[in-house]
Design goal:
With 540 residues, the protein is of the alpha/beta class. It has 22 helices and 15 strands.
Length: 540
């Protein structure tokens, strides 16, 4: 099952977070030094980072300390938003850093990257006999059921001829000792789009025509060979450069940094990091809910047979990319990230706005033309934790300033958990029409989302509201989360109950929705697939 490593603190987790911490630490140091001197800093320190992170001359994780440093070096570049370098020519790790240091810089596509020499070239979709488990039984059911006669016995142990095997799996199903194992590549198994294959060397390879940047591959690769690009460096440069930088924090923040989601303490932590303010994205979730409720009432089934929710960009892109004839059945409502950013920008027109959340795909969404003017940067919770480590901030020990966000509803905060979006929309509909029946179907993980959409197109879900979540468990299971899915789900539900407003329709900002749609005449989702594809594909 994909996702087996989630919530387990491993050596790989430690390396990732150390990279984020060190990049953040030196970004603060160089930014402050540059501010004092008025000169462009020397970025040669980047070349020394792998030696600080992997000290000594004895390998700990790989067969060679040099390979360990090379992999860490590539992860450092990705953490700074820079492209991979590879090993085919001599290059300095710091090449291109001065350009990346500009706070207006966006990462260079693609977002999700495979460090080829870190990949284990895992076998994919292969059936193998575990000889220690095989008992060479008298019945030989594996041999008898094989339709291609691919199984024979050598030294009383089953043997599979892979030149004949069609990978039907019947042998594994009938073996009484479970001695036949189906080997799958973990990253490919986690990819609900079938976007991961193999290159000529057997290393994992991403088909960017299929990839929607959900990030499930990178959190399921046990070798740390897959990583997305970060904007930690650029965010800190904006902060140290004196810009007004405001964070908008996704509802899944509760418990992510080791505490219980104390808003006052977290607000103080963001202040110590240099942010000018912090707002709750659940506010935008309320506005998205109201808009989707109105759209559902107006359009289903009068104009469209069913309606899918819009807040998960990976699900939305998948649905529109693979089912273009039914693209209009996915809500055109702006996502909570964008709606919250537009609200913030009304009062802070010159601010740099940073979305802080659980999701890799949000980085891709922020590259879109209709979103880029609102959301300047996207950071994951894990990247934000790296910034806190760099500043040696334990927010659970801060005094705090008192007070909750006190804006969003319980339903808006519940967006973070699978089923929460549909629940919020249904509750909003029932506020106006208490007796209206709203049928709901939801799916978690892109494999199940695709199946749900296929069934909907066939007419199985006519009149339904469909909720798609690319990550199993919802946003609390995003690629940039820190804590276990079960633990965070419980924390989010507890936090949602604290809101004085239970329903999204109680949010005072809901009347601003028409103004927030100001620049695109409600067609903000029309070019979604094309823009997301453009933002993902590698550049020559």
């Amino acid at each position: 099952m994909p996702g087996t490593m989630r919530g387990v603190y491993t050596n790989l987790t430690q390396i990732r977070r150390t990279v984020f911490c060190e990049v953040a630490k030196l970004a603060y140091t160089s930014g402050e030094a540059s501010k004092e001197s008025g000169k462009e800093p020397d970025y040669s320190w980047v070349d020394d980072l792998p030696y600080q992170i992997i000290p000594g001359d004895v390998a700990t994780y790989r067969e060679s300390v040099f390979l360990e440093r090379a992999i860490v070096g590539e992860r450092i570049r990705l953490a700074m938003g820079l492209p991979l370098q590879g090993v085919d020519k001599r290059q300095s790790l710091s090449d291109g850093v001065s350009e990346a240091a500009k706070p207006e810089t966006y990462y260079q596509p693609p977002l999700i990257n495979i460090i080829k020499f870190a990949c284990n070239a895992c076998e994919d979709n292969v059936y193998r006999v575990m000889r220690d488990a095989c008992q060479g039984c008298l019945a030989h059911p594996c041999r008898e059921i094989c339709p291609k006669k691919a199984i024979s016995f050598k030294d009383k142990k089953a043997f599979i001829d892979h030149s004949l095997c069609i990978k039907c799996g019947r042998c594994a199903n009938v073996c009484p000792y479970h001695a036949i194992h189906h080997h799958v590549r973990p990253c490919a198994d986690a990819c609900g789009m079938g976007a991961i294959g193999s290159d000529e060397n057997g290393h994992a390879d991403i088909n960017y025509d299929k990839c929607v940047s959900c990030g499930q591959c990178l959190v399921n690769c046990p070798f740390g060979a897959i990583s997305d690009k970060s904007q930690i460096f650029q965010v800190i440069k904006a902060i140290t450069g004196g810009d007004e930088v405001i964070a908008e924090v996704a509802p899944a923040f509760v418990g992510q940094f080791g505490g219980k989601g104390n808003v006052d303490k977290l607000r103080q932590a963001f202040k110590e990091l240099g942010f000018s303010g912090m707002e709750e994205v659940a506010l935008g979730a309320d506005l998205c809910t109201v808009q989707e409720a109105e759209d559902f009432l107006e359009e289903v089934p009068a104009k469209i047979p069913f309606m899918g929710t819009s807040c998960c960009p990976a699900w939305s892109v998948m649905a529109k990319k693979e089912f273009p004839k039914n693209a209009n059945c996915v809500s055109m409502a702006l996502t909570p990230m964008t709606l919250t950013a537009r609200l913030i920008r009304q009062q802070h027109p010159n601010a740099k706005i940073v979305f802080v959340g659980p999701c890799s795909a949000k980085k891709l969404e922020a590259m879109r033309k209709s979103v880029k003017s609102e959301v300047d940067f996207v950071l994951t919770f894990e990247e934000m934790a790296g910034m806190m480590d760099a500043k040696e901030i334990d927010y659970t020990k801060l005094a705090g300033e008192g007070g909750d966000f006190d804006v969003a509803s319980a339903d808006g905060r519940g967006f973070a958990v699978a089923g929460g979006v549909a629940t919020a929309v249904v509750n909003a509909i029932h506020r106006r029409y208490p007796d209206r029946e709203v049928k709901v179907m939801n799916a978690e993980g892109l494999k199940d989302c695709r199946k749900m959409m296929k069934d909907a197109v066939k007419g199985k879900y006519n009149g339904y509201l469909l909720e798609g979540m690319a990550c199993p468990g919802g946003c609390v299971a995003g690629a940039g989360t820190l804590q276990s899915i079960i633990k965070t789900t419980g924390a989010v539900k507890m936090y949602a109950k604290k809101s004085a407003r239970k329903n999204s329709t109680e949010n005072a900002y809901r009347m601003l929705i028409p103004a927030l749609e100001r620049d695109d005449d409600g067609k903000h989702e029309e070019n979604l697939v094309a823009e997301m594809d453009e933002a993902q594909k590698p550049r020559a």
